[in-house]
Design a protein that fits this description.
Strand content: 35-45%
CATH class: Mainly Beta
Shape: globular
Number of domains: 1
Order of helices and strands: EHEEEEEEEEEEEEEEEEEHEEEEH
Length: 345
């Protein structure tokens, strides 16, 4: 069963989706590839290590839900970790910590920054799928969950981000999946294919020939002269720089992926886009932020209004690819990066 980005589902469908995930995992378990064990990590006592011999995840149970680490078997964690925030819990203010998290869009100073500093319950489904369930945020009437499934072979991780309205009133929101990347890399954002100006109306095949192919949103601290950005013909690239402060853009990404290359390892984040749906921040299903410490890769589901008891689910997929050559221009992205993201094309 395939979950559409931002699909609103009722309790029966949520149960069916859980069974579908379980059946998928049972097939993986039959191959004997997934192992799950409890380990200490960065000062936290309760963490799950999920691995298949090719890749490894660390999911903490002491705060979150957070995926703290994602790495190839012989590689380094591609996510940022803030050392001063590791191993702690129960703080009175929200902590970034790093790793991967589930937020609520649109961003505000209350619901988005609801504390996630307490223990997380989990269910281990067949084949190594882990369902992370924190305590409900009763103040804002929200229950979050993340399902995490590592494939039996390779590095593919499939996630379902789930938000349920446990309040008494309808809630407008969008699940927001944020991966905080380690410093020192370069992000690649593909642009939609170019098309010529249609000329006179009689030359156009449809009204869409005159319309835009992408929406771009700029934050007040963005600067076109910032040397970290390269706004190209086929790609936007963003370089993380430990000497520079915040910058951010958002856009409508219909290409289905973004990537981040750091020290020869490529992290690929895949997600959907529904052209006929409304998204936060003037139509953004993807946003990216960087400062001197890290770079955030942020995908968003469409906006929905959840009635009390309703749930929205948002899927995302990750891959890690090792030994990926660097690039200086768009031709080298086409040569070194694109074939590794879309092998066989």
């Amino acid at each position: 069963m395939r979950v559409q980005p931002g699909a609103v589902v009722g309790p029966a469908l949520v149960l069916a989706l859980g069974l579908a995930v379980g059946m998928t995992c049972a097939l993986a378990a039959a191959k004997g590839q997934i192992t799950v064990d409890k380990v200490e990590y960065q000062g936290w006592k309760n963490n799950l290590r999920v691995r298949n011999g090719d890749a490894e995840l660390i999911l903490t149970l002491d705060v979150g839900p957070r995926i703290l680490s994602y790495r190839l078997a012989e590689g380094k964690n591609v996510f940022k970790e803030f050392p001063e925030q590791m191993g702690k819990s129960g703080e009175s203010e929200w902590q970034s910590r790093g790793g991967h998290r589930l937020w609520i869009a649109p961003e505000d100073t209350t619901r988005t920054y609801a504390l996630d500093n307490s223990p997380v319950a989990y269910q281990e489904l067949a084949g190594g799928t882990i369902r992370l369930t924190p305590a409900p945020s009763k103040e804002y009437g929200i229950q979050k969950e993340i399902d995490v499934q590592l494939a039996p072979h390779g590095s593919r991780v499939s996630l379902i981000h789930r938000v349920t309205n446990i309040g008494s009133k309808p809630a407008e929101l969008a699940p927001w999946a944020i991966s905080v990347m380690a410093p020192g890399g370069v992000e690649i954002i593909p642009l939609p294919p170019k098309r010529p100006h249609p000329g006179p109306p009689q030359n156009a095949k449809s009204a869409k020939d005159f319309g835009p192919s992408m929406f771009l949103t700029l934050w007040p601290y963005f600067d076109f002269k910032d040397p970290r950005w390269n706004l190209g013909s086929k790609y936007i690239t963003l370089r993380q720089d430990s000497g520079r402060g915040p910058t951010k853009i958002g856009l409508s990404n219909a290409m289905g992926w973004v990537a981040y290359r750091n020290q020869g390892t490529l992290f690929v984040k895949r997600f959907g886009y529904q052209e006929d749906r409304a998204y936060p921040d003037n139509g953004c299903n993807y946003e990216t932020f960087t400062n001197q410490d890290m770079l955030e890769m942020e995908s968003l589901a469409p906006l929905v209004t959840l009635a009390p008891g309703q749930t929205v689910e948002y899927p995302e997929h990750w891959d890690l690819i090792g030994d990926v050559a660097g690039f200086q221009d768009e031709a080298e992205i086409d040569q070194n990066i694109l074939p590794r993201i879309h092998p066989g094309k």
